[in-house]
Structures are given as C-alpha cells and as structure tokens.
Amino acid sequence: MMLTGRPLSAERAHQLGLVSTLVEGDVREAAMERATAIAVFEPDVIRANLRLATRAWDLYEAELWKADDAVADEIMGSAGVRAGLAAFENREG
Known about the structure:
Mean pLDDT: 90
Shape: flat
CATH class of the largest domain: Mainly Alpha
Strand content: under 5%
Distance between the termini: 57 Å
Structural class: mainly alpha
CATH topology of the largest domain: Lyase 2-enoyl-coa Hydratase, Chain  A, domain 2
Number of domains: 2
Radius of gyration: 18 Å
Number of strands: 0
C-alpha cells in the first residue's frame, strides 16, 4: 500500500500480519475488550514491551533476544512485580 497507493483489505492486512484480529460486528466493543485485557498489566510493563516492539524492526535476531532479556529483567525488577510477589508470599491460606 505504501509503495503502490492501492488500498489494502482488512483480510489481506491480517494475512500479512499487519493486524492481529479481524472483527465482525461492534468494533468499539472489540476495542474495549482488547483495552481491558491490556489494562490488567502494570503501565511500566506495557511501556517496556512497546519499547521493545518498536526497536524490534531495527535489530538482528541475536540483538533482539538480548533486548528481550533486558526488558524481562527490567519487568521482573519493577516495583509492581516486587509488590505482587510480596503480596503472594504474605497471603493467608
């Protein structure tokens, strides 16, 4: 589409991996469902994953795996994860 200027159907965009989901019916409801699924994660986790996704296009595979490890370390060391682990350890029952 970028090079030819021709429109791209939703189905073709899905085949190419440009979109992850096709929706029939209420797209607003589908968008809210997706947003709700994402919103359960800590904002810092979402930001770290978005940074990695943005950089992924510019990295070779080996570099991408290193970047992924760095993001995982960042997430696992975050205040939100530490608080969650502490709550889990201190639970009753």
